[in-house]
């Protein structure tokens, strides 16, 4: 499990602390908690920490071999992590892998409806025609187009 001190360093963007941990044998693919619902360090950095987005931490983890999983991309897209999402995609992350029903575009439209992320994903996500492709959902695009205040009123 990633030590709490390292998790706090990620929140505050202390790259030197995280790098020392990695250099001393820290596993960038380790989990941040034990239990049934646990995320990898990269996944946590892409979600919880994106309130003050830390793309520099994402970049450091990727440089040291962090494995990109689909939920990392969902977290970045759904929590407004524009720069983190760009990094994940540029390192080969797939926003719409075969067999998933919830894509990064769904997350971006359904969670915070960040228009810049939605636009980025619309230009990078190929239209899927495989058997596992998600069904079109006009409500998601409606959410993305709604102003912040309109979303509260229509909920």
Q: Short summary of the structure?
A:
With 155 residues, the chain is mainly alpha-helical. It is 54% helix and 0% strand.
Describe the 3D structure.
This protein is mainly α. The chain is 54% helix and 0% strand. It contains 10 helices and no strands. It has helices at 4-12, 15-23, 41-46, 55-63, 70-78, 82-90, 104-110, 115-124, 138-145, 148-154. The radius of gyration is 16 Å and the shape is globular. The protein starts with a helix and ends with a helix. Mean pLDDT is 81; it is low at 149-155.
List keywords for this structure.
globular, 54% helix, 155 residues, mainly alpha, 10 helices
SSE blueprint:
Blueprint: H1 4-12, H2 15-23, H3 41-46, H4 55-63, H5 70-78, H6 82-90, H7 104-110, H8 115-124, H9 138-145, H10 148-154
Helix pairs in contact: 4-6, 5-6, 5-7, 7-8, 7-9
- Gyration radius (Cα, Å) is 16 Å
Please tally the β strands and state the result: 0
Order of helices and strands: HHHHHHHHHH
Task: Please summarize the sheet with the most strands.
Answer: none
Q: Please give the count of helices.
A: 10
